[in-house]
Amino acid sequence: MLFSGVDLEGSVKEEPVVKKANDSARSAAPILKSVRSKLNVGCDSNSKPGESSSLLLNSDGSLPFYFIDAHEELYGPNSGIIYLFGKVKEAGGTYGSCCAVVNNMQRCVYVIPNGSVRCKGKWDFKGRVSLTLQEMASVLKKEVKEKLFEQGVLNFTMTPVKRSYVFERPDIPMGEQYVLKITYPFKYSALPPDLKGEHFSALLGTNCRALEHFLIKRKITGPSWLSFLKVASCSSAPHKVSWCKFEVTVDDPKEVRISKVSMQIPPVIVTSINLKTVINEKQNVNEIVSASVINCCKAKIDSPTSEWEKPGLLKHLTIVRKLEEDIFPMGFEKEFAIRNAKDITLSQESTEAALLNRLFLKIYNLDTDILVGHNISGFDLDVLLHRAQACQVKSHMWSKIGCLKRSAMPKLTKADTIYGSGASRGIMTCTAGRLICDTYLCSRDLLKEVSYSLTPLAKTQLNKDRREIASHEIPKAFQSSRSLMELVECGEADARLSMELMFHLSILPLTRQLSNISGNLWGKTLQGARAQGVENLLLHKFHAYKYIVPDNIPTRGKNLNFAKRRLIYSVDGGNVDNLNTREITSENDLQQVNQGKRKKGPAYSGGLVLEPKKGLYDKYILLLDFNSLYPSIIREYNICFTTVERSADGSVPQLPSSKMPGILPELLKALVERREKVKESIKTTSGLDLQQLDILQQALKLTANRLFCIYGCLGYYNSRFYAKPLAELITSQGREILQSTVDLVQNDLKMEVIYGDTDSIMINSGLDDVKKSKQIASEVIKKVNKKYEYLVTDLDAMFKRMLLLKKKKYVAVKVQFKDGKQYEVVECKGLEMVRRDWSLLSKEVGDFCLSQILSGGSGEDVVVSIHNSLMKVQKEMRKG
DNA sequence: ATGATAGGTGGCGAGA
DNA sequence: TCTCGCCACCTAT
To answer: If you classify domain A268-505 with CATH, what class do you get?
Structure first.
């Protein structure tokens, strides 16, 4: 099955077979026994004295591990080591956090030999000598061996293997051929990507990351149950590298497998954080005065969590500190005592450093899997770590914000990052092992709202009023006990709202499913890295079919590479016209790079927009729409890296003639079919499973929406799978399809097309009757759909009245049906009132005018009424 | 570093 | 003062 992470039928069944390995079973058993005994010693912090916990094993003696997050150090002595974070099951049936250290990762580099080898398995070397595979291999091996020694790589294996290459590098031949696969340990540095030799023209995979290699090779697609066949050792408390409850070491990556038994997906521990800060004017930095934490210890990730507010699941704590050398206001001690009567929910500290220590310790003790907060990645985490640095919080404390013990703080980027741009790499490094769920970023992805601040979101989504305290008001809060308690409550309320938002939007189950579908790391999906999702999907798929994938261009020095890449890969420059043109081209490109991201002219032409026949229409207008046009084109014409022949001069390629289905079309087919299947399952299932299916369907819908991203990634310059010719081919087909549809409707069906944009056309039916219009529409649709196999048009809407003003600007009264009843909705596209950069007044006035125009009243009445209202507005403005 | 291109609109400054 | 080109911003698909 394609996406093994998603289990459609009969997902929840078997519990893991509890404890003990078969005595005779595997040699792993004794090791695991010792693991277990060590773990009893090792799990120091979380278990109460006298309580001992041991891990449950599968019946074959392997250790089940629910994989959640992973991390690799990119620099330093630990690069090449992979850290997996997840959950293991304890004897009591509870779950504990676990870190698995995977050692001995091997680099994997492909050597592309010179000359053609596609002729009958013989290596045609420089067209002169024809050698056998074995002979050629030995010549090549000898040279590669020398080169490896030169690079200081002393320990390696070499194997000739058959692989295909179908991407955009002109220096690597397309199609299947024998290449030499080299593997060597990560402790040796990466080979230079441009290394060449007498017998080989290129290297691929030189800088592949250990983690990516691991996940692709082990076919791990997002959060899922894994089993560790052998666990080499288990560190006890002082020797642990992580803050997790348990820690194991895996010395052979191949001992990590996807679990074949389906087991219940464990709940996770979610901690919501909200900081209240004051601005230190002298240094222009935020200082923390209070931190609120809300913890839910059993959040479901396979279905929506509905009862998260149930007593016992939720705990809260707010830590406040004194402002400057002040003392806490009068009466605070009393409040303090009341709040802590039953449970510690309020904590007072005298310094910011003490507050931070307390908070980090709390997160550690909670054994948090997921940190949540509104704009947590853009604000709270950044402030936390900067303050930890400024207050000289010890590394064994601040590093508890993540799961890996650290001694040095990674470079944090400046605090003044753009609102909502996500966390910096340094912050993500610190939090490795705990997922970051930023409800601000997520709602921006999942919802369409005017504003994504907490206050409006709380209102529109949760129907709750949020009390806001402006940042300059915060110092005043310390003047009285009452106002200070209000500050505390505000912090807790905010933390709570953010968590509620997360549950309300089912962010965890949704993003988990998305990660499973695309094979992405959950943390990346939460960060909204859409391009990366597609990248992973393609990586998994192409690897499975034995294709060598395009190299990962490292971020560092990318700007330099940009121009270089342009020169190497650019088909524009490939024109043998003259060298001058080429140099100018690359110089222009360099300029574009230097001028930054703001200036980016389109690289190729996109969708067709028809000139609108402007005016007010009062007969029924039919809006016809091709369902996900670009993905369908890929399927319809079998467009793929593997099928389209790219021309050398950079012109738009021809449609493929190959009937062999390409990988992209197959992928889309699988996704579409999968969605259909889920839809069907939804009809026939009930109860809890239905909720799960619903999430699945939502996720699939999201992916379907993001199928567009597959096209996007083909046209996205920084994408690993950048293929301008393919993107161009797709859009050019799109234009042709739209045009031919227009021609069909106008010439053959003799109907008037008044507008069209990329994948849609509007037809003036000239009718007053709904039913007749509908009938006509279905006839048109039938005719259009007959022409295509996968492309499907649909009647998107019928407009009773419409005002068509410009390209991409129109208002219409849409007719809809619900329970057999007809009702009308106003749809407004592109006009001022749907834009955020127009004032409320102009929106209101516009709204009124349009409602008048579309009311269907006589022309004169409308004019009079609009005029009157405008006069009224004018008067009001003069007054104001 | 964080899918695409097409298109409308107001603001701004240069130049007539 | 007016026009024009450029830019930032936001939207449609």
So the answer is: alpha beta
